[in-house]
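quick q for whoever's on today - can somebody do inverse folding on this one?? i tried earlier but teh output was garbage lol. tokens:
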């Protein structure tokens, strides 16, 4: 909302999170800062962003402060940058806007060349809001929780690079599904269905679907296929055999596993909200990022 419509001073706060080690990032950051400050907003930098950019005079805040005080967070970077901050802010009701400085940009979807017009539209209320679900995973060993993590995209159980196949036992809501020998298993949200799960042969799930997809990684039996289950399910992956097996959450946090360990995965009670410019379409994003708009002409060239 525009600042003049805000009734709570905290709603004037907009936080900026920027991917580090990005050449030439200072110029677009300065343009966004000037744009928002001219519009009357109090703009703060996430603490790591502030330390990296070194812009004196701009207030810095930690992630928890941002979650408590900001009503909007702008993320400049790739999808990895968005995944990292989204997990940390999931417990707060703060909306996220993604400006793409990466390669694909499925969730950081606003091109940098359109960032100021798009931000202007969103701040005027001309926005499409969508909620995304997350997963929560707990590593249990002899009845004790050894590790707990959250994922926007996926929880992945996988063997080490020099190890043989892993054998995994999978149950859903206490019902045995299968023992699987493979390189691992991807447990993905609809958001993550366009990430690692897609490259492993999984289906595309619309973000509004209430489901979780399980995608085997290079399974020994070709009959082990991806399967979607309700997002109310509790999925338990037990390590039966294999070496150097680990679990990761959005490829950003890791835990090493032992035989007998159980990874208990369920939908997180938290959600994240992305804001897009008015008229945004998930199908447009798929068409652009997956090049569905390209088709061969009569001479065999792509158009």
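ok took a stab at it. sequence:
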């Amino acid at each position: 909302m525009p600042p003049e419509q805000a009734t709570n001073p905290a709603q004037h706060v907009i936080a900026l999170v920027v991917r580090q080690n990005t050449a030439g990032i200072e110029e677009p950051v300065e343009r966004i800062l000037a744009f928002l400050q001219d519009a009357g907003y109090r703009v703060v930098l996430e603490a790591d962003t502030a330390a990296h950019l070194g812009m004196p005079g701009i207030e810095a805040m930690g992630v928890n402060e941002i979650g408590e005080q900001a009503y909007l967070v702008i993320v400049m970077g790739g999808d990895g940058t968005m995944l990292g901050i989204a997990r940390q802010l999931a417990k707060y009701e703060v909306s996220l806007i993604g400006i793409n400085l990466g390669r694909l940009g499925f969730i950081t979807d606003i091109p940098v060349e359109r960032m100021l017009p798009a931000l202007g539209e969103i701040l005027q209320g001309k926005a499409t809001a969508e909620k995304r679900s997350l997963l929560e995973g707990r590593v249990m060993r002899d009845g004790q929780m050894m590790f707990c993590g959250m994922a926007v995209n996926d929880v992945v159980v996988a063997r080490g690079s020099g190890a043989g196949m892993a054998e995994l036992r999978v149950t859903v809501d206490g019902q045995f599904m299968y023992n699987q020998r493979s390189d691992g298993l991807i447990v993905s949200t609809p958001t993550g269905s366009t990430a690692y799960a897609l490259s492993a042969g999984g289906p595309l799930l619309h973000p509004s679907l209430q489901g979780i997809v399980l995608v085997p990684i290079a399974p020994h039996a070709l009959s082990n296929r991806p399967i979607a289950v309700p997002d109310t399910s509790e999925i338990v992956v037990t390590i039966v055999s294999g070496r150097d097996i680990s679990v990761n959450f959005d490829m950003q946090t890791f835990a090493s596993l032992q035989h007998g360990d159980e990874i208990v995965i369920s939908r997180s009670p938290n959600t994240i909200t992305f804001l897009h410019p008015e008229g945004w379409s998930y199908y447009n994003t798929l068409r652009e990022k997956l090049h569905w708009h390209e088709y061969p002409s009569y001479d065999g060239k792509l158009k």
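fwiw The longest helix spans residues 26-38. also The domain at 3-125 is CATH 3.40.50.10330 (Rossmann fold). so keep that in mind when u check it
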